[in-house]
Design brief:
By secondary structure, the protein is an all-alpha fold. It has helices spanning 3-20, 22-40, 47-53, 58-72, 80-95, 101-125, 130-149, 159-166, 175-192, 195-205, 207-212, 217-243, 254-264, 276-295, 300-328, and strands spanning 168-169, 173-174. The relative contact order is 0.17.
Length: 329
């Protein structure tokens, strides 16, 4: 057999393996949703509407990117939405003392960092399960924000501050969407092009073996929790700037949507597997679903039901497929 036939076999194998990838399947779902919405609504393809649709998911996406790193590392943070509420409350209190927009942003992100540090220390120093720790801190952070705010709301933020969440670049692209695009590049490089990223996969696959190879598992996890807190603080800055107020129920339930984006993107809940490309496609897919439903004036509670359904399906289907493979063997 000549080398020419060997090349053809490899090409066929390449395409077969390509279409088995979860990211390709997810991209196909995204295209189908996009085409369906385009045919269903006359306003869907309006460039200004499409640009404004990114407001619906940019802040949640800033939670999903670091959440993917945590889940790959076999950890999770359920307190991210509560961190956003607490960071916004801190900015609201600071705003009453006349601080500048940049100082408010620093306080918001700094509050997120401290919350993430608290989660990280409890998980890594005391070897507590992250799901239990972050359920506790979720109640703690949300409770503090509720007690301080009561049924009131902080408003009257500086105009410059509001511009960060409501403004546009080049007259059409929301500024917070540009922040999201920059975050995609940074997190993709961090996970797929650095030694740090390769260590996260090693920790997720086998944390005990990783310790024996000299990887500082606890330090890596502590950094991820602090990073998660910082990104939640940044998301809080953008959300507060966009809506121009601080309320105790802000970002309620967003931790569920962020986790759904990550799992739908192909990141294994058991850790060690996942790509940033899959997470980004999942973010845009859910964003287009939300945008299409909003054009039909479908209530938000239906979106909550859909998110819960997607989360159950994306967790259950791989488990069922693995079970089928084991039975065949």
């Amino acid at each position: 057999m000549t080398s020419r036939y060997q090349v053809e076999d490899r090409a066929a194998h390449f395409w077969k393996e390509l279409f088995k990838r979860w990211e390709v399947l997810l991209l196909g779902i995204f295209v189908m949703i996009f085409v369906f919405n385009s045919l269903h609504s006359d306003h869907f393809l309006d460039p200004y509407n499409l640009a404004d649709s990114t407001f619906n998911f940019s802040e949640k996406a800033l939670l999903a990117l670091p959440m993917a790193l945590l889940i790959i590392c076999r950890e999770i943070d359920l307190s991210v939405a509560a961190i956003m509420a607490l960071s916004s409350m801190a900015m609201g209190l600071a705003n009453q003392h006349g601080l500048s927009a940049y100082e408010l942003a620093a306080i918001g992100i700094g509050t997120g960092v401290l919350c993430g540090l608290m989660n990280g220390v409890l998980v890594t120093k005391f070897r507590l399960p992250s799901i239990v720790v972050t359920i506790g801190t979720m109640s703690l952070f949300r409770g503090i924000a509720s007690v301080v705010l009561g049924d009131q709301a902080f408003t009257n933020y500086p105009t410059e501050f509001g511009e960060w969440g409501q403004g546009y670049a080049w007259g059409i692209i929301p500024k917070e969407f540009i922040v999201f695009l920059v975050a995609i590049v940074v997190f993709s490089l961090l996970l797929h092009a650095t030694t740090f990223g390769r260590r996260l996969f090693a920790i997720g696959n086998n944390p005990i073996a990783s310790r024996f190879t000299g990887i500082r598992v606890e330090q890596h996890k502590l950094f991820l929790f602090v990073l998660m807190g910082a990104m939640a603080g940044l998301a809080s800055v953008l959300l507060t700037a966009r809506i121009g107020s601080t309320r105790p129920n802000m970002a309620l339930g967003w931790e569920l949507e962020a986790i759904t984006m990550v799992i739908l993107g192909g990141v294994s809940i058991a850790g060690g597997i996942g790509t940033m490309l899959g997470v980004v496609i999942a973010i845009f897919t859910m964003g287009m679903v939300t945008y299409g439903m909003s054009l039909d004036n479908i209530p938000g509670i239906i979106m909550t039901i859909l998110v819960g359904f997607l989360l159950l399906v994306t967790i259950t289907v791989p488990a069922v497929l693995r079970l089928g493979t084991v039975r065949k063997e």
